[in-house]
């Protein structure tokens, strides 16, 4: 019985191999017309607005503005002995570069930077006619303000960071060495904030509350 099963299995495997080999280059290759790619996405102002929304979304990551910040709040003698002060690595200053908040905040800030760079880079090549009056400049200003925020967080939290103002493509782009805090401020943070101040509105209407402005919004 075992011999028959073995022969039957071997025959089935051989048949499958013959079928796959016989197909050669005859497999059907079709491009998915519904797939979203870089070549098809950045074509309307609403698409740019959707991409910008993901940049805002990155500010809500746990390590940036959520529960992860508790770890930073309890550093050193600020922390007590209550249960909610755990994990104690941050309270006792024994955390390292593999600790969760340290790695999570770094990674999540760079997700935000990547999303901001996509908007900023792509809008340079966009057809101005797809935007309403001043919309193109305002979208870029919002993205650059948020990028400045992410880099401010990197500079003040880690003291250094890899500066990327474009979406990395080559190995050289990915292997850029880190820059000190001062260079981050002069290269990215201040120029982005100056651009934002020039092009952002002072206030938004009720429908757009929550978006960044160059001034204080009325309560």
Chain-averaged pLDDT: 85
Give the class from helix and strand content and strand pairing.
Answer: mainly alpha
Strand order of the largest sheet: 1-2
Helix content: 55-70%
Count the E strands.
Answer: 2
Instruction: Give the N-terminus to C-terminus distance in angstroms.
Output: 83 Å
Q: Write down the overall geometry.
A: globular
Radius of gyration, rounded?
A: 25 Å
Largest sheet: 2 strands, antiparallel
The tally of helices reads 10
Estimated share of beta-strand residues = under 5%
Give the helices and strands as they follow along the chain.
Answer: HHHHHHHHEHEH
Question: Uncertain regions: pLDDT < 50 for 5+ in a row?
Answer: none
Task: Briefly summarize what is shown.
The chain is mainly α and 219 residues long.
Keywords:
219 residues, mainly alpha
Give an overview in words.
- By secondary structure, this protein is mainly α.
- Helix content is 58%, strand content 2%.
- It contains ten helices and two strands; from the N terminus they run ααααααααβαβα.
- The chain has helices spanning 2-23, 38-41, 45-58, 62-65, 69-73, 88-91, 100-125, 135-158, 171-174, 181-199; strands at 160-161, 179-180.
- It has a two-stranded antiparallel ribbon with strand order 1-2.
- Helix 3 runs parallel beside helix 8 and helix 8 (135-158) runs antiparallel to helix 10 (181-199).
- The longest helix has 26 residues, at 100-125.
């Amino acid at each position: 019985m075992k011999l028959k099963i073995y022969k039957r299995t071997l025959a089935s495997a051989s048949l499958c191999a013959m079928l796959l080999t016989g197909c050669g280059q005859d497999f059907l290759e079709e491009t998915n017309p519904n797939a979203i790619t870089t070549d098809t996405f950045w074509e309307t102002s609403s698409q740019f607005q959707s991409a910008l929304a993901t940049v805002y979304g990155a500010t809500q990551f746990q390590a940036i503005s959520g529960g992860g910040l508790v770890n930073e709040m309890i550093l050193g003698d600020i922390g007590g002995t209550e249960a909610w002060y755990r994990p104690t690595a941050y309270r006792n200053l024994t955390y390292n570069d593999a600790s969760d908040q340290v790695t999570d905040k770094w990674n999540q800030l760079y997700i935000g930077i990547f999303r901001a760079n996509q908007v900023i880079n792509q809008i340079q090549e966009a057809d101005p006619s797809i935007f309403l009056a001043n919309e193109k400049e305002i979208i870029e200003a919002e993205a650059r303000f948020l990028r400045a925020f992410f880099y401010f967080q990197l500079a003040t939290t880690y003291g250094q960071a890899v500066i990327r103002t474009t979406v990395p493509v080559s190995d050289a782009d990915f292997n850029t060495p880190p820059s000190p805090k001062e260079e981050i401020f002069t290269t990215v943070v201040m120029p982005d904030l100056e651009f934002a101040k020039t092009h952002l509105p002072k206030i938004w209407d009720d429908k757009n509350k929550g978006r960044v402005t160059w001034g204080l919004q009325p309560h």
